[in-house]
Write a structure and sequence with these properties.
This protein is mainly alpha-helical and 218 residues long. It contains 11 helices and no strands. Helix 1 packs parallel to helix 8, helix 3 runs antiparallel to helix 4 and helix 10 packs antiparallel against helix 11.
Length: 218
Amino acid sequence: MFGYIGIGLPFGIIGKALGFNPLWVTIMSLTVYAGSAQFILVSMLALKSPIFSIILTIFLVNSRMILMSITTAPYFKQDSMLKNILIGSFLTDESFALGMNKLNYTNHQLSFEWFNAANIVSYFTWAAASGVGALLGSFIHNPYAIGLDFAIIAMFIGLLYLQFTADNNMDKKLKLVMIILTLLMVYLGLIFIPSSLLILIVTLITCAMGVIIKHAFF
């Protein structure tokens, strides 16, 4: 929840700075619910970008959720299709990381009740934080000047640290190698790959490389 508050407030403040009122910002968080992609969304709307470009960009940026859902789905094979749709619809980077960390303490078992509760609480926390941020935005005229746009990066660093320290099923040297390799691939990808496809392509490539490295050296 603190992670969502830490990102939701800056998003609301930035949304207000770009000309969107608190009600609109809150409704966006309730309907779009795309986290980092919403930062892109408000910027594109402020620039009056074509609607098709906005839809395509947000889809591509959030396409990583397909990979996360594929990873999460096997833990809910015994649950109904409706429950699986609910888990997938409300899944985010944060709840995914939380779930993967929980596997280390539950003998690799996840329950629908636990995951759904985590998702729903996160959903409403994000929306509320966005709305409050937009209200606070009336008093902050230049959110970029105080580094609020760095909030989402800081949260992902925190999630990475938790995953690195909590997962004892994998050699820490391997995890460190993959972190360095991922950073290198992102750096190179920024040169050759469109930013909207960067995360998806780098994820697929580094996952494949990780499998090879693990079986060859670890």
